[in-house]
C-alpha cells in the first residue's frame, strides 16, 4: 500500500513538473516506469549427526502476520517443530488451530482471544524459528519474536515435545510467552 502511495505521489509530481501551458495545441504525456518488488529470500542449512539434528529453518511472515510460508528443512521433525511454534504463536491463528500444536490447551480460549487482540494492536505478533535441535522426543527451539513482521525480541529459546499426536509446544512454554504478551494463562 505504501509503495502504491509513493508511486501515485511521484506521478503527481512528474505531471506538475511537466506543466500544462494551457495552449490548445500542447499535449503532454507522462509515463511512469513499472516497479518491481523482489520476493523475500529464504535460506536453510542442515547439519546432521547420529544423536542430534541441528537445522536452521527460516520462516517468512507477512507484514500483518496473516500468512506464514516455511522453507522445508528436509527433516520432518524439524519441520513439524517449526510448524508447531509458528502456528501456536501466530496472533492470527484461532484457538482451534492453535490447540492442535499446544500440549494441554484446555482452558486457554480466553488467553488466545486476548493474544489475538494484542496481535491486532501490534499489526501482528508471531515468531520466526531460526534453529531447531531435536534430541529424541524433545527439541530445543531458537526463534525471534516478531511484531508487525519485524524481529523485536531476537534469539529467544523454548522447547517442543513429541507426543502421540506429533510435535507440540508445551503448555508452560506457551504460557510464558503469553504472560510476556500480557495474555496470561489461567492457573493449571
Describe what is shown at a glance:
The chain has 188 residues and is of the alpha+beta class. It has 5 helices and 9 strands. The strands form 2 sheets. It has a 7-stranded mixed sheet.
Summarize the SSE layout with pairings.
Blueprint: H1 2-18, E1 44-48, E2 53-57, E3 59-61, E4 68-70, H2 76-88, H3 95-99, E5 102-103, H4 109-121, E6 125-135, E7 138-147, E8 150-163, E9 166-170, H5 171-180
Parallel strand pairs: 5-9
Antiparallel strand pairs: 1-2, 2-6, 3-4, 6-7, 7-8, 8-9
What do these coordinates show?
- Strand 6 and strand 7 form a beta hairpin.
- The N terminus is likely disordered.
- This protein has one domain.
- The protein is an alpha+beta fold.
- The chain contains 5 helices and 9 strands; from the N terminus they run H-E-E-E-E-H-H-E-H-E-E-E-E-H.
- The strands form 2 sheets. Strands 1-2-6-7-8-9-5 form a 7-stranded mixed beta sheet. Strands 3-4 form a two-stranded antiparallel ribbon.
- The protein is globular, with a radius of gyration of 23 Å.
- The relative contact order is 0.14.
Q: What percent of the residues sit in helical stretches (DSSP H or I)?
A: 25-40%
H-E order = HEEEEHHEHEEEEH
What is the makeup of the main sheet? Answer: 7 strands, mixed
Strand ordering within the main sheet: 1-2-6-7-8-9-5
- Portion of residues in beta strands equals 25-35%
Mean pLDDT equals: 75
Radius of gyration over all CA atoms, rounded: 23 Å
| Structural class by SSE content | alpha+beta
Give the CA-based shape: globular
Question: How many alpha or pi helices?
Answer: 5
Number of strands: 9
In total, the number of domains comes to 1
Residue windows where pLDDT falls under 50 for at least 5 positions? 1-68
First-residue to last-residue Cα separation:
44 Å
Amino acid at each position: 500500500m505504501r509503495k502504491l502511495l509513493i508511486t501515485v505521489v511521484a506521478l503527481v509530481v512528474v505531471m506538475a513538473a511537466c506543466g500544462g501551458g494551457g495552449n490548445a495545441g500542447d499535449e503532454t504525456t507522462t509515463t511512469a516506469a513499472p516497479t518491481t518488488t523482489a520476493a523475500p529470500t529464504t535460506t536453510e542449512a542442515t547439519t546432521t549427526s547420529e544423536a542430534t539434528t541441528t537445522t536452521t529453518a527460516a520462516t517468512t511472515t507477512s507484514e500483518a502476520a496473516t500468512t506464514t510460508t516455511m522453507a522445508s528443512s528436509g527433516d520432518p521433525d524439524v519441520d513439524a517443530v517449526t510448524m508447531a511454534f509458528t502456528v501456536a504463536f501466530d496472533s492470527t491463528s484461532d484457538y482451534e488451530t492453535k490447540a492442535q500444536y499446544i500440549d494441554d490447551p484446555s482452558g486457554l480460549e480466553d488467553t488466545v482471544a486476548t493474544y489475538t487482540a494484542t496481535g491486532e494492536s501490534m499489526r501482528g505478533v508471531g515468531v520466526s524459528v531460526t534453529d531447531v535441535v531435536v534430541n529424541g522426543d524433545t527439541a530445543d527451539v531458537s526463534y525471534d519474536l516478531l511484531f508487525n513482521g519485524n524481529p523485536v525480541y531476537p534469539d529467544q529459546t523454548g522447547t517442543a515435545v513429541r507426543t502421540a499426536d506429533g510435535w507440540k509446544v508445551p503448555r508452560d512454554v506457551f504460557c510464558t510467552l503469553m504472560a510476556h504478551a500480557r495474555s496470561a494463562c489461567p492457573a493449571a
